[in-house]
Amino acid sequence: MATAAKQMASASGFDGVRLALLSNRFEGICRKMANTLLRTARSGVINIAHDFSCSILTADCELLAVAESLPIHVLVGPDQMARTMKEFHPVLKRGDAFLHNSPYHGCSHPADHTILVPVIDDEGRHRFTVLAKAHQADCGNSIPTTYNGTARDVYEEGALIFPAVRVQRDYKMNDDIVRMCQMRIRVPEQWWGDFLAMIGSARIGEREILALANEIGWDTLSEFATQWFDYSEARMVEVIKALPKGRVTRTSTHDPIPGTPAGGIPVNATVEIKPEAGIIEVDLRDNIDSQPCGLNMSEACARSAAMIGVYNSIDHRVPKNAGSHRRLKVHLREGCVVGIPKHPTSCSVATTNVADRISNPVQAAMAELRDGIGLAECGATFPPSLGVISGVDRRYGRRYVNQLLLGTTGGAGAPACDAWMTICHVGNAGMIRMDSIEIDELRFPMVITARALQPDSEGAGTFRGALSAYVEYGPFGGTMEVAYVSDGCINAAQGTRGGLKGGASNQYKIDAEGRQHPLPATGVIPLGEGERIVAISTGGGGYGPPTLREPERVVADVRSGWVTPERARQVYGVALKPDGGVDSAATAALRRASMG
Amino acid sequence: MRFAVDTGGTFTDLIVEEDDGALRMYKAETTPDDPIRGVLDSVQIAADDRGIDRRALLAKGDLFIHGTTHAINAVVTGNTAKTAFLVTKGHGDMLVFREGGRIEPFNFTVPYPDPYVPRWLTYEIPERVLYDGRVMAELDERAVIEAIGKMKTEGVKAVAVCLLWSIVNPAHETRIGALLEQHMPGVPYTLSHVLNPTIREYRRASAATIDASLKPLMGVYMRTLASRLKDAGFAGRTLVVTSQAGVIDAEHGAEAPIHLLNSGPSMAPVAGRFFARADEAAETAIVADTGGTTYDVSLVRKGRIPWTRETWLGTPFRSPVTGFPSVDVKSIGAGGGSIASVDRGGMLHVGPKSAGAVPGPVAYGRGGTEPTVTDASLVLGHLDPDFFLGGAMKLDIEGARRAIRDKVATPLGLGVEQAADAILKVATENMVQAIMSITVNQGIDPAEAVLIGGGGAAGLNSVWIARRLGCKQLLVPEVGAALSAAGALMSDLTAHHTAHHFASSDKFDFDGVNRTLEALERRCRAFIDGPGKGAQQSRIEFSVEARYPNQVWEIEVPLRGLRLENAAALAALLADFHKAHEEIFAVSDPGSSIEAVSWGARVSCTLRASDDARLAPGAASGRTATRRRAFFAETGFVDAAVKRFETIKSSEVIAGPALVESAFTTVVLPPGSRAVRRASGSLSVEVGQPGG
Question: pTM for the complete prediction?
Answer without folding.
Answer: 0.91
